[in-house]
Each structure stands twice: as C-alpha cells, then as structure tokens.
Design a protein that fits this description.
- With 218 residues, the chain is mainly β.
- The protein has one domain: 2,3-Dihydroxybiphenyl 1,2-Dioxygenase, domain 1, CATH 3.10.180.
- It has an 8-stranded mixed beta sheet, covered by helices on one side. A 7-stranded mixed beta sheet has the order 2-3-4-1-13-14-15.
- A hairpin with a 3-residue loop joins strand 13 and strand 14.
- It starts with a strand and ends with a strand.
Length: 218
C-alpha cells in the first residue's frame, strides 16, 4: 500500500514546522499561516493547525541497512530515543525482519524509523533528512478492529500483515500499514501512551478521513 499524502493536525504549527524543517532537516514543500508540508521520500507529510489536537503514531521507512546510522543521526540532533520495557533503544522485530527506533516530536507524536530488511533499499549514502523513504505506518485506534478493517476492505482489498481482529491488526504491506488497535485494550508501544483516535486524512491507494474513531472514504 502506498501512502501518497498524510495530513495530520497540530495545535502548535510553528513549533512543529521548525522541528521537522530545522531539527530534522526534512525538505519543505509548502508553508502558510495554517499548514506546512514536507517531502518524506515518496510521501508528503502535511501538518494543519487545529486548536485542539491529540497525538498520533506514524512510521517512516529508512534504508534497510541504516538503522545504526539513523540512530546516530537522531542522537547528533539531541533527540532522545524512547525505550521499551527492556530499556532498549533499538527494537528488533524478528517476526517482521525489521529494526526500529522511536522518538517524540514536539506534539508527543510517537515517530518511528523502521529499517525493513526484506526491502532492497540499501545505500551507502550519508544518513540525513532526505534519507527517509516514505511514511509506512499510521496508527488507527478504534473501538472495534473488525469494523475498521471491513470499512477499509470496502474501499480496496487489504491483507492482514500481522495480528488479528481482536487486539492489534497491522493491515497492508511493508510499504504501507494501518496499525489498527483496540484503544480500550492496548496502548502505544514502546511508551504505553494512551492511543487517541486522532483525526487524520490520507491520500493514495486509500483516500480516507479518520474522524471520531471511524473511517470514511473521501
């Protein structure tokens, strides 16, 4: 699944824009009084101002051989990595053949960088903001996983990559996953932060709006 554009919302647009533009050094596409947009590889990430917003979880794919370089890059920028219960900064997802690291942006969004070893994306280039390949995950906390999964399938057929329809369901593929969770039973890894049904819009193979915990085709 390809995510062409992901639109998120922030109550501190100026600060979030500066974090992605100056701290992370990600190429900016647009900036106005109410939004900013960034080029995350093949995906456009846009932040729009909203007076009240709640945190998200999303992930960026990085080159499959550069998890150590990505970690060093974040630390050089003074970004503190989030640790799991074993106090690990680098998480080895053996079942996914991937390695990940997590950090907060200024909205306490849980941002993940994930090196998926199955993908032929290796490079010897210096790791920097332009090294991010795409947005590959967006968190979808809901009351009923099965209802959300069926709603997505009515738009376009979607395979379950991992999990089930009970607690946690990663639906899609390594290019793009909906991380659908039962928000009453599960919190976000690795911090156990509350999973909010935060409003977002997506364009690409799925043109959807996620509002009030429900998925709607747009």
């Amino acid at each position: 699944m390809k995510i062409k554009q992901l639109i998120l919302y922030t109550a501190q647009l100026e600060e979030q824009t500066a974090f992605y533009k100056k701290t992370l050094g990600i190429p900016m596409l647009e900036e106005s009084f109410n939004h900013s947009s960034f080029q995350i590889g093949s995906t456009v990430l846009s932040f729009y101002f909203r007076e009240i917003s709640t945190p998200y979880h999303f992930a960026f794919n990085i080159p499959c051989n550069q998890e150590k370089e990505a970690m060093a890059w974040l630390k050089q920028k003074g970004i503190e990595l989030l640790r799991n219960d074993e106090h690990e900064e680098m998480i080895d997802f053996k079942d996914w053949n991937a390695k990940s690291m997590y950090f907060y942006d200024l909205d306490k969004n849980i941002v993940e960088l994930i090196a998926r070893k199955n993908q032929p994306t290796q490079t010897n280039a210096i790791f920097r903001g332009q090294s991010l390949l795409c947005i590959s995950e967006i968190g979808v906390p809901v009351d009923k996983i099965e209802k959300a999964y069926n709603d997505l399938n009515q738009i376009k057929r979607l395979n379950i990559y991992d999990g089930s329809l009970e607690l946690f369901c990663a639906a899609g593929d390594e290019d793009g996953l909906f991380i659908i969770i039962d928000k009453a039973k599960k919190k976000w890894f690795p911090t156990d932060d509350i999973a909010h049904s935060s409003y977002f819009r997506m364009e690409g193979e799925y043109n959807i709006e996620f509002a009030n915990g429900k998925i709607k085709k747009i």
